[in-house]
Each structure stands twice: as structure tokens, then as C-alpha cells.
Amino acid sequence: MQLLFRCGLLNSSFQRISRLCTAADSNQDALKLISAGLYKMGSMRYMAEKTSTNVYSHFRDPCSQAPSMAEPPPALLAERAFSGHLEDFHHLHQIVINFGSPEVADQMSGNVYMHASCVEDECSKCIRLVEQIGEFSINDLKEAITCLTWWGSDAQHSMALRDVVEALDRVSVDRLLSLHFSLEDQLRLAFQLRSLAIDLPLQFPTKMLHSASPYIMQSSFPLIISFLLLLSAEPHSSPLGATVSGSKVAQRVTPILDLMGESEVAAACRGLQRLDGGKEGAEILSAWLTHQWGYRL
Q1: How crowded is residue 116: how many other Cβ atoms within 10 Å of its Cβ?
Q2: Stated pTM of the model
Q3: Total domain count, the chain
């Protein structure tokens, strides 16, 4: 019964993807819908024992459950592998969840009117937190960016929160060269940053795709599909289209169309449209979507 319910959710998600691809929706909407389809497809394959894990687990929607209920970070000697700098960030996260922004919290508490107060207001805590983010470990960044996905669009109007998000983005770019920063974790953070309700010119997703482009064709097939989906969400001014050969990607994807799921074909099609030399391959995938699932592209 549970399997039938999950199949119903998967079919519903694919119908939404079909409607999305036939309309002029934003890249972020397409990213969210197709990534949800990929995650559900990975879950179905894992439940059917076709894979040893959900190969698209990095596309799990963090807002589907509370951050405290998320998968635990790696542990060292049975201790949580955090650097100890997250206490102030968790305090800020609770302020944003309860009040929307630190500015609103200061107004409601009256701290904004107490010019000689000995109590540190929330906006001042944000300024101090921005300086501490440079010391965050990779696990700290993963926890913090997951929390960002719970922040509403009101956070976009807060200068203090924008500074925090930009600092997290900047430090994540600095950690890209770390040997402890796996490609799967990089894909997860890039997906979460692209899914934020805060509209900022973030650097990490673009830098991550650029750093992964030289060896992405030697990676597993799910990672290639994930790369193409994130590439499709990049701004059109991005030069990433010339870093990977579209013809080579098409040669990898088109021979196994019969084995690919709907969301995988949709992700590959959108990604190939952004690659140099990928137009012919995108047309083949578009025709397959039309023939197999009735898309009108």
C-alpha cells in the first residue's frame, strides 16, 4: 500500500514537471520540480533494491522536515563533527523563524530604542556572526545552509541577513578545494543555495559547477544528470556552457533513453540546451519527451 502511495506521488510530480516544461516558468521553479522528481525516483529505485542508496539524495527538500530531524553529520569518535561555532547561528535561525528578521525582533523587543542599553541587539549579533563564519567547518556550512532554506522571502529585505548569506556563500567557495568536500555535498549545497527565497548574486553554485566541469564526464550517471540540472538553473550570462562538450554529453545520454526516467530526461534536456554543441542532443531528448510522455515543447 505504501508503495502504491509513493507511486502516486511520483506520477503527480512528473505531471507537474510536464506542465512546467510546457510553460515559460522560471529556472528556480523548474529546478525545484525536477529535483523533487529525481529524489522520488531515487527513493523508488532504492526501495525496489535496484540501488544500494538513493543516488539523488542530494536533492532532498530540506523543508520536508525540520533541520534537527535531518540526516546527522559525519561523526568522529562518536562526537558530532562540528567546529563549535554554530551556537550563534542557531540563535539567529530561531530569531528568523519566529520573527522573520533580526530588525523586527529588535523592534518588538524594544532594543532598537535603547541607545545606551547593555544588551546586545540582534542586528549587532549578526555583524559579529559574519566575522565568525570564516571559521566554519564544512559540516558547519552544510548545517547553516540547510537552515537557510527555511528562511522566508522577508529575509531578503534584511541587510543583516543578506550579509550572513553572502558570508556563507563566500566561505563555501573558499572550501571548494578541500579534499573533505565531496562532490555530492557540493551538489547539495549548490542546490540549496539556488532554491533560496532570498534573491542574491550567489557565487558558490557557479564556482562549484566550474570546478567540477573538467571531470564530470568521468563521474557516475546520476552525478552527470545532477550537474546538468544545476547548470540549467544558472543565469544565462554564465560562461559555463563552454566548459563541457554538449556533444559528448549527448553521446553519453541518448543511447540509454529507454532506461532513463522522465525527470532524468527533463533534467538532461534543459542542461544540454545550455551547453555548446548540445542543441542536437537537446532536440533528441525533446522529441523523446514528446513521444514518451506527451510533452509539448
Answers
A1: 4
A2: 0.83
A3: 2
